[in-house]
Amino acid sequence: MGQFHGLGLPGESDAYRAARDRLLAAEMDLRRQIEAVAAQRRELPPGGALKEDYVFSEGAAELADRETVRQTAFSELFDAGKDSLVVYGFMYAPGGEPCPMCTSFLDSLNGSAPHISQRINLAVAAKAPIGTIRDWARRRGWSNLRLLSSGDTSYNSDYLTETPDGSQVPVLNVFRRDDGGIHHVYTTEMLFAPAEEGQNNRHIDLLWPLWNVFDLTPEGRGTDWFPSTAY
Known about the structure:
It is a single chain. It contains five helices and seven strands; from the N terminus they run αβββαβαβαββα. It is α/β, with parallel strands linked by helices. The chain folds into two domains: 1-6 and 14-43, no CATH class; 55-187, Glutaredoxin. It starts with 13 loop residues before the first helix and ends in a 17-residue tail after the last helix.
């Protein structure tokens, strides 16, 4: 019998159960810390007003439609009754290749998108032309993501998803709409902080099931494996 419950698993030793209890206590502490940080994040004051009502290029809702292209203002990304907007900056530059790490993350986000969109607005923006982005999306099966081309706007450079030399950065931004307009709320700024010894910046790990599954195993996430677009 353990410290927290009376259950056990076949063949486990007393030493295993004692170690598991210590780990369970640490996991409970971690959960409390995650929830405390989330509460602190929600208490942030409003950030700056949206710099401008950017106009993105967007395709049809049906990914199979290769012809339709429309211009969508940033303010039009907010559906009625949903006042928060999450925008992920996909590292895909004009003339470049799609980022494998972003692709892996978006593979998982595509599966979660129908659930996410029940409460908030969600979009993915990249600098590549909208046709190029959608071609890649068709290959990946991203039928649930709202995909935007920011190539004709300064959105990327304004909201830290692009460096001054034009390099793309995988930043996630959150915006909020209220009676006072649209304001920035949050950016995954841990990406820009100095990496601690032995640590990766891991700015979106909590949103990315891949690494969390690896963390449950004896092998862990390792130090030299990263997602690929093909295996």
